[in-house]
Amino acid sequence: PRGPAVGTFDYDPASGKFQTRWDDWTQFQQWLREEEQWNCIELCLVNTYRQLPAYERKLWYVCSRHGTSGIKVYTKQHPEWEFKLGLKRTNCACSLVVKQYPGIPTVLGRYSSNHNHPIGNDNLPYTQIPKETKEYIPGLLRLK
After folding, report:
1. Which domain, by its residues, includes 104?
2. Quick one: which of 100, 119, 97, 127 has its CA closest to 109?
3. How many CB atoms neighbour CB 96 within 10 A?
4. DSSP 61-126
5. Phi, psi of 66 (to 5 degrees)
6. pLDDT of residue 30
7. CA separation (Å) from 19 to 31, 51, 65?
8. What one-character-per-residue DSSP string does 3-61 give?
9. Is residue 76 part of a domain?
10. Do residues 42 and 125 make contact, with C-beta atoms less than 8 angstroms apart?
């Protein structure tokens, strides 16, 4: 008897590649927000793959310090200038792959949390202010 097809919901957990599981997409999004807030990191969506009937979509996230685009060709006009803040891009190895399957609410994931840079408060200068916070601040200013 043949086993489940590669890439399907039955195959992926048994393969050991997808160790993390969320009951549904909402639970995954909540976990993602908490992970980013707790470690003061940003996980950026880099690519989405589709391969029906095996899975509905597979999303690949990387740490924002990995870089999500190509290297820009730029010649510094003043290379002697020193900056207080170092470069954001460190080619960080942290990544997250999540898969959704047709007709199944459960989301499976593979998370590698290996960063090659400090996380927590030391990483805050390299992260963006969340949209919710940007919307909250003007409301506080109006109260004064």
Report:
1. 11-69+82-143
2. 97
3. 20
4. EEETTT-SSPPP----S-TT---SS--S------EEEEEEETTEEEEEEEEE---SS--GGGGGGG
5. -75, -40
6. 97
7. 15, 20, 24
8. -PPTTSTTHHHHHTS--EEESSHHHHHHHHHHHHHHHT--EEEEEEEEETTTEEEEEEE
9. no
10. no
Asked, for residue 2, whether it belongs to a domain, the answer is: no
What is the distance between the alpha carbons of residues 141 and 86, in angstroms, rounded to a whole number? 32
Task: Pull the structure tokens for residue 40.
Answer: 């003061």
Distance, in Å, from the CA atom of 62 to the CA atom of 113, rounded to the nearest integer, reads 10
Which pLDDT value is given to residue 144?
Answer: 65
Confidence at 18, pLDDT banded by 50, 70, 90:
very high
Asked if residue 17 lies in contact with residue 112, where contact means CB atoms within 8 angstroms, the answer is no
pLDDT band at 31 (very low <50, low <70, confident <90, very high): very high
Q: What is the count of structural domains for the chain? A: 1
**Does a structural domain hold residue 52?**
yes
In Å, how far are 23, 63, 86, 127 from 89, measured between CA atoms? 33, 10, 9, 12
pLDDT band at 90 (very low <50, low <70, confident <90, very high): confident
